[in-house]
Amino acid sequence: MKVDIEKLQKIVGKEHVSDNIADLYAYSSDASVHQALPTVVVRPKTIEEVQEIVKYANKKKIPVIPRGAGSGTSGHAVPIDGGIVLDMKRMNRILQIEPADMLVKVEPGVVDDDLNRTLKPYGLFYPPAPASSRIATIGGEIAANASGVRSVKYGATRDYVMGMKVVLADGSLVNLGANTRVHSSGYQLERLIVGSEGTLGIVVEATMRIYPLPKYRCLGVANFDKLEDAGNTISEIISSGAQPSMLELMDGIGIIAVNKALDLGLKEVGAIILFEADGNVKEAVEYEIKKMKDICEKYNGYDIEMSYDAKERQRIFGGRKKLFASLSKYQEGIICTDLADDMGVPNSKIAECAKKIHEIAEKNNVIMAVYGHCGSGVIHTKIMLDPKTQSQWDDADHVIEQLYDYVHSVGGVTSAEHGIGLSKAPAWKKARKDILPMMRAIKKALDPNNILNPHKLMDAPDDWIHATELRYRVGV
Ligand SMILES: Cc1cc2nc3c(=O)[nH]c(=O)nc-3n(C[C@H](O)[C@H](O)[C@H](O)COP(=O)(O)OP(=O)(O)OC[C@H]3O[C@@H](n4cnc5c(N)ncnc54)[C@H](O)[C@@H]3O)c2cc1C
């Protein structure tokens, strides 16, 4: 693909444009299994620079792939058609903190944890916090509608978006939403950008809602011999009207993996549940925590530990926080892939879905851990397989299809918070044929030349195994 490197250098400065093969390689993948080289990497600093780059790309019909930290697990920042990867991390200023209006204005490259560190002295916080908050950017979180351990009480990124500035495919700038907490002034276009995975516009500024930091947090952990009991506990905690600020599940496979990776010495039981309550009145927090503890006990939960102490809470949560990175240690010779990693199911189906995942894994000769923010219905999995055996990739493909069929049959979703991107697209497209024409019409109206992150979501290729290089290639 022909790209005028000098033109791009004139826009952002020579040092912020690279077609050096080492850089292209570094930007060829995210946290998924996919890999494809971009033509060039460009790092803009201002809105005007983004506009200039996009105007040029639109005229020449060159793909533009916005990118935050590249921590996405669905391949949505992978430049499947080459083109310009637009690294947004230099646009990382916190522009305004407005406690009186309970909002912040930020550039898209601000890292989630950095925002929270800055808000803390004000007694405020930005709740969505995905487990990747140490690196994930606000722009990437908006584009993926990220959420995290606190979503059970505080919701997902979409619940925090008040407004945003977006550069459209023709390079024009639009100002969506408002500084008010609610608005009913026309289409909620700021919401349309949420979850759009960089396919409809480039977020160059965001106005986000913030919350007061709660004074008290109490975290508990309970052991279960049976995964099913743990799943039913979660469903009952939610339906009982209790208000957890965190409700996490981790199965026995996850426990073995973190023990192997981190030498934590956790008891290797069928599952653990982490439950937390927060608030400004200690008695109210205690009331919620006791309610959850009682339900754990009703479903045979035991060895229950609880603490208000920040360090102790960190220790209790340590294994769950590092689970993702630990899973490849579960068994020699296998790797952990981000395929079918992010289902959402109705509250009453948690135990059934967890059991189904283990059944499907066994039937297809792969290993799958079950964990996640199950209080919000988010069930994370990882397909763990031997990457050097060709048939294991086909096994993974069958798992994705069977699992997605099941999840849709119970009214669930195939991505609760990570996005569709590439590998999750084929089975999702098959199941959601009803909405694809509407999505394609929106895309065509906003990006007629199909330059913004092309061939993702509804336009992703059906054959994900051969659509890009797989990072864990057979025979390597
Ligand atoms: C260890 C680990 C744990 C994780 N835990 C969670 C979790 O708990 N919850 C969760 O939701 N996710 C989680 N994720 C997934 C990932 O971190 C999130 O999807 C995150 O929002 C991605 O942010 P990013 O800055 O890395 O974006 P990228 O991965 O760089 O990009 C993601 C998408 O956003 C688009 N994009 C980026 N910036 C912009 C912009 N300025 N304008 C328009 N589009 C843009 C990209 O084109 C791409 O489609 C995890 C990932 C890892 C590796």
Beta-strand residue percentage = 15-25%
Mean pLDDT: 95
Largest sheet: 8 strands, antiparallel
Number of helical regions: 17
Ligand names: flavin-adenine dinucleotide
Helical content, roughly?
25-40%
* Total number of beta strands: 21
The geometry reads as globular
Using only C-alpha atoms, the radius of gyration works out to 22 Å
Cα distance spanning the termini = 28 Å
Quaternary status of these chains? Answer: single chain
Description:
With 476 residues, this protein is an alpha+beta fold. Helices cover 35% and strands 21% of the residues. It has 17 helices and 21 strands. Strands 13, 14, 15, 16, 17, 18, 19 and 20 form an eight-stranded antiparallel beta sheet that branches. The longest helix is centred in the last third of the chain and has 20 residues, at 390-409. The protein starts with a helix and ends in a 6-residue tail after the last strand. The mean pLDDT is 95. Residues 30-31, 65-73, 76-77, 88, 108, 130-132, 136-137, 139-141, 143-144, 146-148, 197-198, 202-203, 324, 417-418, 453 line the site of flavin-adenine dinucleotide.
Short account of what is shown:
The protein has about 475 residues and is of the alpha+beta class. The chain contains 17 helices and 21 strands.
